[in-house]
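Morning!

This is the sequence you dropped in the shared folder:
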Amino acid sequence: MSEQPQPREIAIGTAIRNNAEADPDRPALTHENRSLTRLELERRTNRLARAYEQMGVAQDRMVTIALPNGIEFFESAIACWKLGATPQPVSAKLPASELEALIELAEPPIVVGGPEADIGGRVRVEAGFVPDPSLSDEPLPEAIAGSWKAPTSGGSTGRPKIILSGSRGTVTRGAQTILGVPEDSVVLIPGVLYHNAPFMFGALAIFRGNHVIVMTRFDAAQTLELIEKHRVEWMWVVPTMMSRIMRLPEGERLARDVSSLRTVWHGAAPCPPWVKEAWIEWLGPEVIWELYAGTEGQGATFIQGTEWLEHRGSVGKTTPGRFKIVGAGGEELPRGEVGEIYMLPPDVPSYRYVGAEPKVLEGWESIGDLGSMDEDGYLYLADRRTDLILSGGANIYPAEVEAALDEHPGVQSCAVIGLPDEDMGQSVHAIVQPRVEVTEQELRDFLSGHLVRYKLPRTFEFVDEALRDDAGKVRRSQLREERVAKLTARKA
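The structure's back. Tokens below.
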């Protein structure tokens, strides 16, 4: 009886080629009404890589990719990996000033897509670029990037930085991944690809031979339609998406066959308990998983729905000696008290900042999150340190107030910030995008049944635009700065 081949680490480009050779006609990528087979993806990215090479892309150079969600986004990244280069994804709608700042940090030879901006004389590759058909689409010499991804983060300050991964551009097929990304299955990525999690899991799913479905932008009804149509087995979502799907008319949601789903992961933001419970009841607790981790990868926790029901609100059990809760004076806090979450990075560096320095305390690192840990080592998130509201000497966590607001059926999205107050120091201000017409008094009455009095917003503001993106992110710092500037201008 012959021995089974052992999993081995191979270059990303080699994995793409091996997938094509194993089953050339199997779909690799689908976006809207267009699909690429494994063989088409292999050949197209070989030709694109040669075009990039002629433009100056080389081993371990970063390439800024500012393309919208679609097949072209992943083709560009794969072409980089085949040259041993590092994709550096950013939003296609990034303001020119922020793009210019990131380009200065990354020093890419080319910039793919993006708004009109000063790119410092670098080669600009427009969206929709088609390589010279005379370039070969045969396999390239094997190359492995020293860092396989370089996502960006504005962080709490809004100043952009690049988070250069400590992992090389390799993949291991035949081995279980920490999040159970399958092999030769169907994966749906409804999030924006310039955010770390959708980019990372979408790419990993492609490497592992999955048929990856990419959405132009998240739409609740379309998500269910795609799950049913393609028999999706694995999906990554954020709480905003989960909430919007749950707010669909029940008849519309239940009419779709989503029985193919085996694993649904969520993360990127705290999940309101009512949303989590609704998904567990709908799909079953064994299907629902939650991940807490930063892009930096210093540490992570995860929890399945079955375990969450026993530790409601937790994001998972911490690894002993790898997580601790720290007070304002740098002291480790006892169990149950809220403080800043610090993680002890692994011995092998998981990342390197470009344009910033990590927040370090005696070898432990923080990404700015607040939380507490119970007696059993389960972690509970509170909020970001920079978003904490201090009102009348009391700590108020915006995420808690937002979670309560999100439960109101008339709220589409919301953000809670602290505004200057001469008496209290800060006052709680709620910015609400309504789903239907709703009054301030209705929201006050609703919240009074969910929050203690001192946490209730003193003022409300209604807006038309969404306050969170499809990755569930909201820049509270920016919202606060805009409103403080208006208040200052009025006083002047």
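Headline: DSSP finds 13 helices and 29 strands in the chain.

More detail when I'm at my desk.
O.
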